[in-house]
Amino acid sequence: MEQMKLRHLIDPLDFSSQEIIRLLDLADAIASSPKSYFGICEGKKLATLFYEPSTRTRLSFEAAMLNLGGQTLGFATADSSSASKGESVADTIRVISGYADICAMRHPKEGAPLRASHYSRIPVINAGDGGHQHPTQTLTDLMTIRRRKGSLSGLTIGLCGDLKFGRTVHSLIRSLARYDGLRFVLISPEELKTPQYVLEDSLIPRNIPYCEVSSLEDSMPELDILYMTRVQRERFFNEEDYVRLKDSYILTEDKMKLAKPDMAVLHPLPRVNEIALDVDDDPRAAYFEQAQNGVYVRMALIMTLLGLDEGKVFQNA
Amino acid sequence: MLNIDSLQNGIVIDHITAGTAMVIYDLLELGRLDCCVAIIKNARSEKYGRKDIIKIDGEPNVNVDILGFLDPNITVGIIREGILVEKRKPQMPKTLKNVIRCKNPRCITSTEEEIDQIFILSENNKYRCAYCEQEYQPKKK
User: Fold this and answer.
1) What is the DSSP letter of A222?
2) Minimal-distance CA residue of chain B relative to A128
3) Which residue of A has its CA nearest to B123?
4) How many domains does chain A have?
């Protein structure tokens, strides 16, 4: 039997747009009948190497592997790993490659999962590297958008809040830019605008329409998707800047009255106060559903990278 | 003007920004060559006022592609039997390895120093760190 080529997911663009669609198809199939996938990863182990705390993402990965009948091992902070003794990422992954079949790595340093992938003998999934990429969050976002709107094309997407340091936003823009008929409304304070390189790489070369605005209220009526983000304290070197900007945008039910009846509100979670609690009961609030989708899409990803999806995703690879 | 013997066979790196020839000498590791290398600093230039020139004797294996990144004005001439047979402007290389350093304090290269510093030429003709994608910002002259 021909050995499957080792694939990693470090950058959302590591998968072609067709591979993403097929992965989302598999995730949808899992969502409709999650229990029927139990046992597919029996005997397989997922290592969760979390050098930076992230309860939600780590538990989502672990739930995904457990749902597939596999097992998990790993650490939840750098303090409890060999990194605290000065071990390099390259050495760690070389060792872990002998302990597990697949690995999910979160690291505060940007590019650490890419470095690991160069030395790994098992698939490496980037579970977030600093303010850089968070591709499995992007897959979760894409799955939720598609399930809510039926397609990834022909939508007006509003992104609101910290568009400068928000890695989920950068990954999402890069991934969505590959689909047709999209328009972006980038809503942020001046200090937290989308970095120029994100625009120059993804939107400008493809002539994708976008506008940069500061008013959430003015933008609401035209949006099909509103992607809210949290202003993250850990991305600021200066506490004063964080305090000044953290409450820039708060989505309330009053503001939701301005929106289309079928708009969907997404948020990578955790939220602090940028979405008021009264929005939770609005049928347009999709963020808890989004967190659930995160488990299904990670199940699909683990199956695919381990070659247990019957070749559905990496066709002609 | 100072007289340097003409090359019979070799490479002439011309139109180097005045005062930067030694940077290029080090970067191309010309000190490791056992052939004759001449560095001419502050030569008169009609176009730029002053310039530096490096002449390398013989047919050394020198990777001049990197010069396209360092100085867009540089020209490289190939001399065979005393005749200029080729003159070209080096193009910007697709990757740079250990030429520049990433300044992003959040980049993995800032803590694991044995990692090669690799920069990749992006679609907008700027160099980005292969690990964190931070754009290289040249020092303002």
Assistant:
1) G
2) B132
3) A201
4) 2
**Do the Cβ atoms of B108 and A197 come within 8 Å?**
no
The total number of residues written for chain B in this structure: 141
Fold of the domain built from segment(s) B10-88? Alpha-Beta Plaits (3.30.70)
**Within an 8 Å CB–CB cutoff, is residue A135 touching chain B?**
no
* CATH at residue A218: 3.40.50.1370
Q: A175 and A89, same structural domain?
A: no
Segments of chain B assigned to CATH 3.30.70.140:
10-88
In angstroms, rounded to a whole number, what is the distance separating the alpha carbons of residues A24 and A139? 8
Q: What are phi and psi of B13, to 5 degrees?
A: -100, 110
ipTM of the complex: 0.85
Cβ separation A110–B107 shorter than 8 A: yes
A8 catalytic? Reply is no
Domain containing A188: what range? Answer: 135-291
Give domain status of residue A259, yes or no: yes
Q: How confident is the model over A157-198, as pLDDT tens digits?
A: 999 999 988 778 988 999 999 999 999 999 998 888 998 888
- Touching check for A189 and chain B: CB below 8 Å? no
Q: How far is CA A130 from CA A80, A113, A244, B8, in A?
A: 19, 10, 22, 55
Q: Is A87 on the interface with B (CB under 8 A)?
A: no
| Reported pTM | 0.87
